[in-house]
Amino acid sequence: MRFKNSFKKMIEYGIYALALLLPFQTRLILRPGNFGSGSLEYLTISLYAVDILIIFLLLLFLIDKIRNSQIQIPKSKFIYLIILFDLALFVSIFYSPDK
């Protein structure tokens, strides 16, 4: 019970931190967008601290739901088609000529 409570507290405080950190927009530049003699912002690949926090909170939420077995496996064929389509879209990122 105590472990379950700590997950809920971590998610709660993470959401508070997300609301607090959202205006700051701190980012890690993974690849600068250099083009010739200048720099183009839209070619820059960066990772925002808020994105990392959101991914962490989503993982905590999913772990909490799986531990409580509240996730149901969808029975509809339509849901399976959507999942397959999403997977195909994700895989196509790696084969696209212009990522």
Task: Explain how this protein is built.
This protein is an alpha+beta fold. The chain has helices at 2-21, 49-67, 77-95, and strands spanning 27-31, 34-35, 38-39, 45-48. The strands form two sheets. Strands 1-4 form a two-stranded antiparallel ribbon. A two-stranded antiparallel ribbon has the order 2-3. Helix 1 packs antiparallel against helix 2. It starts with a helix and ends with a helix.
Task: Give the key terms.
about 15% strand; alpha+beta; about 100 residues; two-stranded antiparallel ribbon; 3 helices; flat
Percentage beta strand: 5-15%
Structural class from helices and strands? alpha+beta
Assign an overall shape.
Answer: flat
Helix percent band: 55-70%
Quick gist of this model?
With 99 residues, the chain is α+β, with helices and mostly antiparallel strands. It is 59% helix and 13% strand.
What is the fold's blueprint, element by element?
Elements: H1 2-21, E1 27-31, E2 34-35, E3 38-39, E4 45-48, H2 49-67, H3 77-95
Antiparallel strand pairs: 1-4, 2-3
